[in-house]
Amino acid sequence: MKADFSDGSFRPALQRFFDNVKALPARFVASAARNGLPASDRTRSTFVFGNVFLHIHPVRVHRWSLRWTTTLGLGVASMAAFLVTLATGVLLMFYYKPYPDAAYQSMQDILFVVPSGRLIRNLHRWAANVMVVTVFLHMARVFYTASYRSPREFNWVVGIGLFAVTLGLAFTGYLLPWDQLAYWAITIGANIAQSPREVTDALGITSFFDIGGLQKLLLLGSDTVGEEALIRFYLFHVMLLPLGLACLLAVHFWRIRKDGGLARPADADSRADCPAEDTYPVFTEVPAKTYHLAALVRGRSPAVGRGPEATLPSMPHLFYAEAAVFMLTVLACLFLSLLSDAPLKELANPLVPENPAKAPWYFLGLRERVSSWAFMGGVGIPAVVLLGLALIPYLDRETAGTGEWFGGPGGRRLVAKAACVGTSSVLVLEAAAIRFGWIREWFPHVPQLVVTLLNPGTLLALVYGAYSTWLVKRYDSTRAGALGLFTCFLCGFAVLTVIGTFFRGPNWNFYWSPAHWPVH
Fold it and tell me: How far apart, in Å, are the Cα atoms of 112 and each of 109, 191, 424?
């Protein structure tokens, strides 16, 4: 046995082995955290940019960004809901069988046989709902604080993509239980995808240009909802769309960091309520000495000209705030899961239509528009809205109000008036359409193209557009027009969602209460 004299003492190899075993936990921690515990500004900084999971965060964060009213934690809540959905979805995949003969039975096994299966499914469903809500509210927060402006224009477009993928995940997951509700809701969705046939039939070009039929075929893999549709939706739901979402999230987080962090007002340093002893000057007004260097130019990065005044280390301040939002989101999902079960109706039957066949609540505003004018309500107007949202940062080049809630000309009063205009307009048009019908009821032989182009949906969009144009002229501001248009569409969508959720019954007729539904 060879002895070790390197430390001046005699230790047999066996003794050294046991000493190494005793020191193993401490050495493992030291090897993982190579820079030591985050106890100083320097070690806190190295803790952040030396960690593969944390390096997307800045080393220091502005006090303004840590205020709860700045973001309401909606971005972190969206990410937390996605992670809960992802984790519970993986657990459900162990038991779910994605083909019609076994899909419904596997759902029943999850509910009644698998230990905690009902809770896991409820968590998955409620986390998905929370994710849709928080992503939508996060997008609204970014808009109302004008945080889409330069240099964050492209990240706004990425956010629009994230919102679309989130809705795609919700839509594709809806078919997987293979019950009556899922089957007929997806049937309606497939018919919406086929709705461009309204236009091609009216123009007489469907025989050689059937874009609607192609969209339905790509969605279902056949003419009807069946085995091909189920496996296709399953593939999109568990692989393609999550992969796309992960890629967009990576770009989104990276651009937040590279674009200078969260948007904040120009005078945020003076409004951050930071104690004087916590700040120190970095840039002086007049340099004490000048230099002359050839080819020395001012950088274009958002970090140019900014020092660490009014900032705090991300560790622990930012991470504690993120952890709090994460835990609150998980707690909310768990509470909702215990309060309400995810629905599972009878086995899907193509011969017995669900009446009324309702999509998830976040699609019911769209369903309300589709009920009489499928193409414009389900494809045309949503496409124009998404395109308009994506173009907002490139059309609004103003700077006033960036980083502030309802910043810009008009402010809160403009938003409040726009909410009244948006709500009253949609209520008047909906009431007229419900009470008196529309062009098809008045003139049965009118050409389909007229019905497609002239309907309450397009008329409502024209009213909102005219009001937005008036605001641009009234305030001489593109931002004012954008605030009015966004608020009008937001209120209109909310009203249509409420009507579709609570006031539509069999055959999509209007009823004040389910108690008034006809008895079969």
Answer: 5, 34, 47
Chain-centroid distance, C-alpha 491 = 18
DSSP 8-state class, residue 116: T
C-alpha 386, offset from chain centre: 13
φ, ψ dihedrals at 461, nearest 5°:
-65, -35
Q: Which two tokens stand for residue 108?
A: 């029943």
CA–CA dist 329, 87 (Å, integer): 14
Spatial CA neighbour of 78 closest among 245, 287, 307, 285: 245
Which residues sit opposite 179 in a β-bridge?
A: 347
Which token pair is 104? 């419904």
Length of the chain counted residue by residue: 520
Classified as helix, coil or strand, 101 is: helix
What's the CA gap between 63 and 60, in Å, rounded?
A: 9
Residues 6+ apart with CB under 8 A from 332: 130
**How close are the terminal C-alpha atoms of the chain, in Å?**
92
Distance of CA 504 to the CA centre of its chain: 27
- pLDDT single digits (tens) 8-32: 556 788 888 888 888 888 888 777 7
Answer yes or no: are the C-beta atoms of 122 and 337 closer than 8 Å.
yes
CA distance 358 to 185: 6
Averaged pLDDT of the chain: 86
Pairwise CA distance, residues 178 & 174, whole Å: 8
Give the span between the Cα atoms of 120 and 115, in whole angstroms.
Answer: 9
Helix axes 381-395, 153-174, angle to 10 degrees: 160
Cβ burial, residue 375 (10 Å; 0-12/13-18/19+): buried
- Amino acid symbol at 183: Y
User: Residue 90: CB partners within 8 Å, gap ≥ 6?
Assistant: none
Q: Which fold has domain 66-263+314-344?
A: Cytochrome Bc1 Complex; Chain C (1.20.810)
pLDDT tens-digit readout, 101-142: 899 999 999 999 999 999 999 999 999 999 999 999 999 999
Rounded CA-CA distance 397/368 in Å is 35
Beta bridge partners of 62: 311
The 10 Å Cβ neighbour count of residue 469 is: 13
**pTM assigned to the model:** 0.88
Q: Where along the chain do its domains lie?
A: 66-263+314-344, 355-520
Determine the Cα–Cα distance for residues 379 and 452; give it in Å rounded to an integer.
11
Q: d(Cα 23, Cα 74) in Å, to the nearest integer?
A: 43
In the prediction, which pLDDT does 442 show?
Answer: 84
Name which of 123, 135, 132 is nearest 76 in CA terms: 135
Query: Hey, what amino acid is at 51?
Result: N
State both tokens at 372: 């009489």
Give the distance from CA 274 to its chain's centroid. 33
